[in-house]
Amino acid sequence: MATPVALSRPPILNWLAWHPASDKVHPSWLGSGCSMSTHQMKGFTLLELMVTIAIAAILLTIALPSFQASLRSNQVATTTNEFLGAISLARSEAIRGTQSAGVCASADGATCGADWNLGWLVWTDVGNVGLGTLEATDTIVRYSQGRSKMAINAGGVGAFVFDNRGRMSARNGTGGAMGGNQAVVMQSYVCPAGSNLVRTMNVNMTGQVTMERSDCP
């Protein structure tokens, strides 16, 4: 019959068995069979921090112009689409109803003005009074606020009015008639030379709209 072999353990463990309340043990007391490891916390050195900041500054310098160009392009696209949508809505309202409808420059969404940079509204005529001009009895269908970072030039046109056949007649800022086709030019307020940020909307007398893209001068 094999004789059991007694396994020895460091004396300090025997001592701890008789002194459980003790919590101060030096690593050398554990003997060669046990060990304790310590971990040292390390942070950034000043040189590493300066290198990181320098790399971040270089990346920001490269990315910022591209980001700003994307913002300007999105602003031009959004403003152009809103204006085209307003023209289309006014023409549809005029054809659908029995009276005229129109789009005019507006700063407050309640009255017509002459500055398209401040915004515009779509209205439909109600009754037979003041056809082609916005009256207190008319219905305002939609209002779009102006874009502070856009420049809009309508060549003196204050309103585009459509009859029930969809034909367009332009009015100046005081309501006077303007004949012929009209153009509205929109561009980013900051328009670097060579950037494709200019849009020209041509509205002909039949009510059709075409758009042209061009670069900043």
From TrEMBL:
The chain crosses the membrane at residues 46-67. It is found in: Cell inner membrane. InterPro entries: N_methyl_site (IPR012902), Pilin-like (IPR045584), T2SS_GspH (IPR022346). Pfam families: GspH, N_methyl. Residues 80-175 form the General secretion pathway GspH domain. Gene3D superfamilies: minor pseudopilin epsh domain (3.55.40.10). Keywords: Cell inner membrane, Cell membrane, Membrane, Methylation, Transmembrane, Transmembrane helix. It is a single-pass membrane protein. The keyword Transferase does not apply. Belongs to the GSP H family. This is Type II secretion system protein H.
